[in-house]
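Predict the 3D structure for this chain.
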Amino acid sequence: MNEKGIAMVIALVILLVLTLIGFSSISTSTFESSITGNERVGTDAFYAAEAGIQVGMNQIPATTAISVTALGSGSSYWSGGPSDKASPKPIYYLGLYKKEATELNWGYRRYQVDASGESGGAIKQVESQVIRGPILLTTEYNP
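Done. Predicted structure below.
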């Protein structure tokens, strides 16, 4: 039986398998780094939208639009949806809201704040509804 050179063949096969495992590991690491980068950019966009929500909530009862505001990290936010960046939308006044178990002459005002945030090409939108009050109701239902 001729076994000369079999060790070299086995060594080459093992080397080929280890090379394939190495290439697979490099590919997986590159893909995971890309996913992590996308996650970070998306998270930054979400936090930018949250900043827009906070600005909107702080300006209520005024319902004016929040203009595009740049943040220090290259992110920005505005009121409205992703397509409203060129002309931000105002905060919505949803009308009066009566809670159960409250007196008849007291109510609350409802608002909806929509804000979008952008960072590194990722855009996220956040919506929040705010109830303010109680307010004394009169016969007129003006906000």
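The longest helix spans residues 6-59.
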